[in-house]
Design a protein that fits this description.
The protein is 52% helix and 15% strand. The chain has helices at 19-30, 44-49, 65-74, 85-97, 135-150, 154-172, 176-188, 190-197, 201-218, and strands at residues 11-15, 34-39, 55-59, 77-80, 101-104, 117-121, 124-128. The strands form two sheets. A five-stranded parallel beta sheet has the order 3-2-1-4-5, sandwiched between helices. A hairpin with a 2-residue loop joins strand 6 (117-121) and strand 7 (124-128).
Amino acid sequence: MPFYIEVNDRNVLLVGGGEEATRRAIRLLRVGASVKVLSKQFSQELEQEAKGEHLELIKGDAKDGDLLKQLIAWCDLLIIATNDKDANDLAYRIGRRLKKLVNLTTDAEKTDVVVPFEAKVHGLRITVTSEGKSGFVVRDALNKIVELLKEDENLPLLLDSMYHLKKELKKITKDARKRIKVYKTVYQDPFFRELIHEGRLEESKKYAMDIALRRLQGEH
């Protein structure tokens, strides 16, 4: 079952200091994670990034079991990205034993956490993964999805109006089941959709709230 897990303010350990580890470390730093990288050597990009905060480079052997246990115990997410199968296997076993979330870059079937290709369009966050089969195909698929969604000018208005309804309705009732019924009624209402189609955003918000209030009053 897929989940979104935000890694800002989380501790992430990367085992490996090469190109793949560098790319992931920098991406993690950009979203606010605290990152440690274990490797015998590091890329120039990592050494440059380590001059700032939130990144610590630890020079050591990825086959050092005691060092791995210490570092893996610290992290919330373990990313294994070396070219050494024995080192990868050791880190993986320790990570599983310590019940950490593990991303094994060389084996999609063993990994707990998938790092998908991601894009944002019209306020929607889109991610696609082939679970390790082909990054080229995934990027192509993501681009096609993004282009398709960009063509729908109603989407951002619809999202804005429904989000407004959601926020206001939570102030009125704590009953999630009642709120879901209202969302469905509004979303399927022909006149509401017509207002969205005509770009009448503020009118759609008011109309949605009118429906919501009538629906809730009718259930009392």
